[in-house]
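User: tokens in, sequence out, please.
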């Protein structure tokens, strides 16, 4: 970790980056923003850790916890909502045993997230799995898709 943090710090010093760019580089490197990384930069740059966390929690694309290897995004926009996206979200939580206040499985294989709109209203409800779009989604179909992931986290379809 130290080597990567030093690399990010050097880049920051060369380009005159700011807290946002540092956080982006940390997240790109580690997949999320570890507390140890925030404290490391806080000490070296003499910037309170609270400033880093203030920025990280303000912008929704920053993650303070690890993300799963596979991402399931459920559109919850108007058309998808009307056609049952909330039920799909609850179904995914149930089959993956993800608690209401969590978004990632304990084994870090899956992260679920909601999208406000994917822009595919004509095939609502819509689910993205690792950036592949699946429309006209139903619970049974979604279960089969998720079961299509093998131990190596390779998607094999349905």
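Assistant: Sequence out:
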């Amino acid at each position: 970790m130290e080597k990567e943090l030093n690399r990010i710090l050097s880049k920051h010093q060369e380009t005159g980056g700011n807290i946002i760019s540092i956080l982006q580089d940390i997240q790109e490197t580690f997949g999320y923003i570890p507390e140890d990384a925030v404290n490391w930069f806080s000490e070296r740059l003499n910037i309170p850790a609270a400033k880093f966390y203030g920025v990280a929690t303000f912008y929704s694309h920053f993650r303070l916890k690890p993300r799963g290897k596979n991402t399931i995004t459920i559109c919850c926009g108007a058309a998808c909502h009307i056609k049952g996206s909330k039920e799909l979200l609850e179904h995914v939580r149930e089959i993956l045993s993800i608690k209401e206040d969590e978004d990632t499985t304990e084994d870090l294989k899956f992260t679920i997230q909601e999208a406000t709109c994917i822009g595919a209203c004509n095939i609502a409800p819509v689910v993205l799995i690792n950036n592949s779009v699946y429309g006209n989604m139903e619970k049974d179909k979604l279960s089969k898709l998720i079961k299509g992931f093998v131990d190596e986290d390779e998607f094999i379809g349905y």
